[in-house]
Amino acid sequence: MAQSGSSSPSDQYRPFVSDEAQMREFTWSAVVVGAVLGIVFGASSLYLVLKVGMTVSASIPVAVLAITLSRIAARTLKLRRTTILENNIVQTAGSAGESIAFGVGVSMPAVMLLGYGLDWTRTMTVAILGGLLGILAMIPLRRAFIVRMHGRPGEPGKLLYPEGTACAQVLITGEKGGSGGRTVFFGFVIAFVHKFITESMQALGSMFAVPLGFVNRSAVFAGEYASELLGVGYIIGRRTASIMMAGAVLGYLILIPLISYVGDYVTGPVPPGDKAISQMGIKELRDNYLLFIGAGCVATAGIISMFRTMPIIIRSIRAGLSQIGDRGDAPSAIRRTENDMSMRVVLLGSLGLIALLAIYLAADVGWQSAILGACLVVLFGFLFVTVSARLTGEIGSSSNPISGMTVATLTLTCLIFLALGWESSQMRLLALCVAAVVCIAASNGGTTAQSLKTGFLVGCTPRLAQWAILIGALSSALVIGGTLLAFNAAGTVYSAKPENLPQVTLSADEMKLLTESRRHADQQWLVWDNRRDPFVALPDEARRKQLTAVAAGCYLVDPETGRPGWLVDPGIMGRLHETDDGRPVKRDFDAPKTQVMGIIINGVLQRRLNWGLVLVGALIAVMLELCGISSLPFAVGVYVPIQFSTPIFIGGLIRAGVDSFSARRHAAALAEINDPQAKAAAEVEAIRKSETSPGVLLASGYIAGGSIAGVLGGFLNFHDTWPKQLEAWGAALPTAGSVVAALIAFVVLVGLLCFVGAREPSEE
Question: Does 400 or 487 have the greater pLDDT score?
């Protein structure tokens, strides 16, 4: 047990389940249910990230489902109710699926942009290595980020982990029942219904957009009517939400209009854009220019943040390393809620993963390149896992700009390769694999931190939670590759139309350079993907230019005649909109963030990337730090679309108003207390009530309801007729197409949050 004189944060905070409590926790039923839910949420999250480029945290929806399934099983099957610690294990194991799906969905489809086909083994290997590495890298940081930096909203130097805190409230209120549980459930139902009607039935508008023509043609103030983002804003508080909104204002109301204003006077395209700025819309301006400014800002802000917290990180790692020499023969000396996984397991596991990565890469690029790739994974992986874990603590995992960190990793890796003269297609593939592992590691590292925060508040055993999320990550990683291939195969189109095929004939020598073949239409074909540049060894430069000038794509070549016979248009990022017989092709997977990966790789290694944009973002982060403002949430605001920052900002403003009202009420109560000890006790009680206030509970329900409805909407899209039927029902409602109705519905959500948040916290 800890000594009575200790003053560590873990001694100051008392979790819901005490150290001395004895109850079921790591049961295999909880682990299996969590792993299955993780696979389900992983598939849905992969669909969403390929379609719109973002996902929502799965921790809260999984926690709600864990409680619900337990109650249903207890009532119908007469099974025992699961404990709160078992439900925590379910949400911990289940949360890994969404984060791995996001990393895989952002990075791995980019192999097709490099001229390679999606490969189940490659995707599974990258997912396993990245997922497990992210968890192992986060474990030594738990004490630094979660225990020592635990605090109240708005308190300097503290990390709130908003969705982790909300998830803990869901578990606690589900255990306690009472009015708190009803508040969470009420918020869940309201948000679920609103999200389902808005997104799945399309009976309400999902966002508003106000053109600011007096500024510029590209200045538009927008916001989503998103209940889950409104809840996130309430939980993170006004300051962080305001800084994030300031970044959105800079990005979308200043930088994009400025780029548009100047670019309208430039006749030709400005790299990395491929057409004149005057012909670009807001989305194209963001994807071609602002995205790189935001990526530079995010990367620099994360590095600055890491150096600022380096002393506490080093102390935490040193404390963990001291466990290596322990023989573990006195487990009673470690408090249950401070019992982390052995550092021996963490170090040996991390080294083993890196060795496996080097062995896998060596088969494609050779040992020298593979070892360098593994070293870059170590460097960037541990760096961005640290950044992701801290950033998740500030703004939540749903708004965590993992893709920005991936852009930074990919850019730096390509720059190193460029300096080494590694510019071949194999090196481009290696750069993408490095970025993919880092992307998945950073994504899962942030999710791990969020889940461990939930466990810290609930009172779990950290070691058991860490094993649970390792198992959940492994199970999700094993199937995510097959899910990605299924999505792509479902929409792949083979076209033999002459207008879709290059009018060239390959010579016998050229066909010898095509090493892959594929069977289609009862015939064996040679595979020619000109994005891979298979003819780089040709001595005739003019002929090479002629062949590489063919429209980018994958073609099947007749080995007898040398004529391309089919265009293979993938389901993900495909360009055809109808089949050869005229049937329309449903294109759900534009994969917006994945396309950026291809732009960076080809842009850097083919010397077409505008580094000035990245450096502008870096200098913006430096400027903010010189002003004494945290640049991380600001960088997120610059990077993500403004419509996501707006509801978060509104939620933060509501929290500020509620806290101000509660502070006046609390000050009046304190004025009547004369005893110093009683006054100190009242202050502590006020902190507890603030963290478990009705507003926080309702916001938690908003996050859970909106998230689950979004995931359900993603699954409905797998059916051929249900989405159309739901949209038809939505179109028949009187609210369909009504701007006023959509605004009123969101105002109701805001009003409920204000009303419930201002209520006096219950004494349960």
Answer: 487
Neighbouring residues of 379: CB distance < 8 A, sequence distance ≥ 6: none
Measuring CA to CA, how many Å separate 546 from each of 503, 538, 561, 753? 11, 12, 19, 63
Token pair 């496996």 in the structure block, residue: 356
Q: What is the pLDDT of residues 301-359, one digit of tens each?
A: 877 776 776 665 566 556 545 544 444 444 446 788 888 888 888 888 888 888 888 88
Q: What span, in angstroms and rounded, lies between the C-alpha atoms of 645 and 638?
A: 9
Start-to-end CA span in the chain (Å): 29
Enclosing H/E stretch for 527:
strand 523-529
Task: Determine the 3-state secondary structure of 497 from DSSP.
Answer: coil
H or E segment to which residue 517 belongs: strand 517-520
> Strand 517-520 to strand 493-495: parallel, antiparallel, or no bridges (unpaired)?
unpaired
609: left (phi over 0), alpha (psi -120 to 50) or beta: beta
Give residue 241's Cα distance to chain centre.
Answer: 18
Tally of helices (H runs) and strands (E runs) in the chain: 30, 7
DSSP-based three-state secondary structure for 569: strand
Q: Which of helix, strand or coil describes residue 203?
A: coil
pLDDT the model gives residue 566: 93
Cβ neighbours for 229, distance < 8 A, ≥ 6 positions apart = 398, 399, 644, 647, 648, 651, 706
Give the whole-angstrom CA distance, residue 258 versus residue 373: 39
pLDDT at 715 over 70: no
A 10 A CB-CB count for 523 gives 13
Amino acid at 179: S
Q: Quote the CA–CA distance of 264 and 279 in Å, as a whole number.
A: 8
Cα–Cα distance list, 214 to 222, 393, 420, 491 (Å): 16, 38, 49, 43
- C-beta of residue 638 within 8 angstroms of C-beta of residue 297: yes
**Alpha-carbon 13 to chain mean position:** 29
Instruction: Quote the CA–CA distance of 18 and 176 in Å, as a whole number.
Output: 15
The arrangement of strands across the sheet holding 554-557 comes to: 493-495, 564-569, 554-557, 523-529, 517-520
- Percent over 70 (pLDDT), the chain: 85
What is the C-alpha to C-alpha distance for residues 37 and 56, in angstroms, rounded to an integer?
A: 15
Helix or strand (DSSP H, E) at 222: strand 220-224
> pLDDT tens digit string along 153-205?
666 667 888 878 878 888 887 777 655 557 778 888 899 999 899 888 888 88
- Is 591:535 a contact under the CB 8 Å cutoff? no
